[in-house]
Amino acid sequence: MADEKITLDERLYDYLRTYAKSIKLSAPKFHITEGTDKSDNYVSLVWRVTIEGITEDGEDKKIQHILKTARASVIDPMITNIMITYMFQREMFFYKEVLPIFKETLKSRGEIIDDRFPILYDVSEEFGKEILMIEDLTPQGFLTAKLKIFDYPHLSLALRCLGEFHAYSFITRVANPTSFEELKMKEHLFTQKSYDNIEDEQKDMSKVLIDIIFQALANEDKHYIERCQRFIENMMPNMFDAVDGKAAEPYAVVNHGDSWTNNILFKYDKENNPCDLRFIDFQICRYASPVLDILYMLFCCCTQETRSKYFDQVIDEYYEALSRCIERAGYDPNILFPYEVLIQHLTKFGKYAAGMATYTIHIFTSNNDVKIEDVNDSEILQERIENDSFYKSMLRDTFKDLVDRNYI
User: What are the boundaries of the signal sequence (predicted)?
Assistant: First the structure.
């Protein structure tokens, strides 16, 4: 990590000098610090940058931004270097193409997009060395949630805001159909090509994670293991089908793709309740059924207790927020995305939740003090399934719920 930081700092300084020149800031001075904990990011490094300089008018100016860069080496064996490049390119596409289309479309309908995304200031698109410069939201009071697993207040707010975000796609589909065609992104992660090129290390890691699931279910009724076994045997084809936007038409939307707690910044009121949020990190943004984001939140980022108490309630809250946004733009949500279709899609694409849970729950339940390179260590995972009761219960209950709801 130390060597990686030194190397990236030099590249960042070169980039920042060019940026300062582009905004006509002379005699610039830069201060770069790590923007997140080491365990928070798996394909990126996040830096908090302060730029101080003199404007053309001779005034002192201070700028604070966030920089995202690719890691110098791959930490997660499930993700290749070329996939990281695709992910950075996807996030750039979201900020440079998707958001402007949404904003233009809603403005034409007399609406303004709720500002739930950081501002993109600049990018470097050099292949393999991509950099994004975005707004630092910390001064506005937006923070990463202390817990990686959603409780009801965080989940409710996140799904309501997600409903508004998905509504932008439904509105654009009818209000601006030509531009909507530009939003139909090709899948960049779960593809047959990437699966065919999977390396032995990735295959071994998949086997470890699958074995861990069966260990978590060892004392449960055998039908849970049988259903999970059937799912595992066809997991990748199921994932290919789930992320296929054509399979969700005419109800496919732009998904966030990775809406867990680390990729949502929350603002809190005086009672310490979440009252506002900003979505960040659109590297897995995709065009697919809107339920993929919902399933991801509910089955990868929530406990069974939260699901049992609030599942129907938060689904309704999501749909109400989506409906209100569509109605404000002058359209009928019962036509653009009927509630019955939402429920049908949850079952139709429910296998996506199982696939993502296989690869994410061990990450989302890891302690903050766990080194990032140890998250996918097979020996550590084996130790956790034997001794970490929370990790084991999350896996067990997630897959039991998926079977009980007939999603797998």
Answer: none
Taking the CA atoms of residue 95, residue 100, residue 106 and residue 112 in that order, the dihedral angle to the nearest 10 degrees is 70
How many whole angstroms separate alpha carbon 392 and alpha carbon 213?
8
Cis peptide before 250 (omega within 30 of 0): yes
What is the per-residue burial (b if ≥16 Cβ within 10 Å, else e) of 266-299?
beeeeeeebebbbbbbbbbbbbbbbbbbbbbbbb
Architecture of the CATH domain 139-404 = Alpha-Beta Complex (3.90)
d(CA 101, CA 254): 12
Q: Is the pLDDT of residue 112 over 90?
A: no
The mean predicted confidence, pLDDT, of the chain is 89
The per-residue pLDDT for range 22-76, each reduced to its tens digit, is 999 999 999 988 876 655 556 778 899 999 999 999 999 999 999 998 765 554 5
d(CA 60, CA 229) in angstroms, rounded, equals 64
Give the distance, in angstroms, between the CA of residue 48 and the centroid of all CA atoms in the same chain: 20
pTM of the model: 0.91
Quickly list H helices, 51-189. 81-93, 99-108, 152-175, 177-182
